[in-house]
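Quick one:
INPUT:
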């Protein structure tokens, strides 16, 4: 059994060890899923350097993995990091399967989606990037105080920590809070904290009043000649429509 941490570099090293020792890779804490295999001898990927494993896999399997130290290796780590944030019970299995194909046939084979596994691997990485991009574009924070802004996004994957850190550049010196399904994520002084959502639920300002103010601003700034509701509907996925505070005024203008 090959044990690794839930980070891209450790997972890559576990995939290399799995090829060298013909064993099963597993993220630490998930050993129960291996059944009887959890009682076998375990190799710890965190205790071995990547530069040590590259010549070993060359000698044991005849595979050239030097590219892992170059730019394609960095791209692979980014794809793994994104797949780790994808909410799916099979994400670990998919990552290791994609890595096995990549080690055997090269990075281009994976990055271009030559198989169903690599296609899904790349597709999930794109889904994470898409959610982050869309959330940054459409989410709207509500002012709870002079130093506290709160938002309640509808996230489908584990992207909250990336999103809130990107927003910190827009609001320096302000505490930011994302209300998630059962907890709140707060960024304060560049530190992330998870707290019960109830601690902030009562601090959310009345959304109707905020939307009314936003619609007044939109009416003052919007150029009717440039308004194209059909184009806006194509650009903004339907699952994000509720975030558009000026949606009602747009719909009225389109009618």
């Amino acid at each position: 059994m090959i044990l690794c941490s839930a980070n891209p570099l450790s997972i890559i090293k576990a995939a290399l060890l799995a090829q060298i020792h013909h064993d099963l890779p597993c993220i630490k804490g998930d050993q129960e899923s291996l059944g009887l295999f959890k009682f076998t001898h375990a190799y710890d990927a965190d205790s071995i350097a990547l530069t040590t494993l590259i010549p070993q896999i060359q000698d044991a399997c005849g595979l050239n993995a030097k590219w892992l130290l170059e730019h394609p290796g960095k791209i692979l780590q980014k794809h793994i990091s994104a797949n780790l944030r994808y909410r799916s019970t099979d994400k670990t299995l998919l990552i290791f399967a994609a890595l096995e194909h990549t080690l055997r046939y090269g990075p281009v084979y994976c990055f271009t989606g030559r198989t169903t596994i690599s296609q899904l691997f790349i597709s999930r990485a794109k889904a994470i990037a898409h959610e982050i991009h869309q959330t940054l574009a459409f989410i709207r924070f509500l002012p709870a105080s002079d130093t506290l802004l709160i938002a309640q996004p509808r996230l489908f994957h584990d992207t909250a920590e990336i999103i809130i850190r990107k927003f910190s550049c827009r609001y320096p010196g302000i505490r930011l809070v994302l209300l998630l399904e059962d907890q709140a994520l707060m960024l304060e002084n560049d530190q992330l904290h998870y707290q019960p959502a109830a601690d902030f639920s009562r601090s959310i300002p009345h959304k109707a009043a905020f939307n009314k103010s936003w619609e007044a601003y939109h009416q003052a700034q919007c150029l009717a000649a440039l308004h194209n509701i059909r184009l806006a509907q194509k650009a903004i996925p339907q699952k994000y429509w509720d975030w558009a505070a000026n949606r009602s005024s747009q719909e009225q203008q389109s009618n």
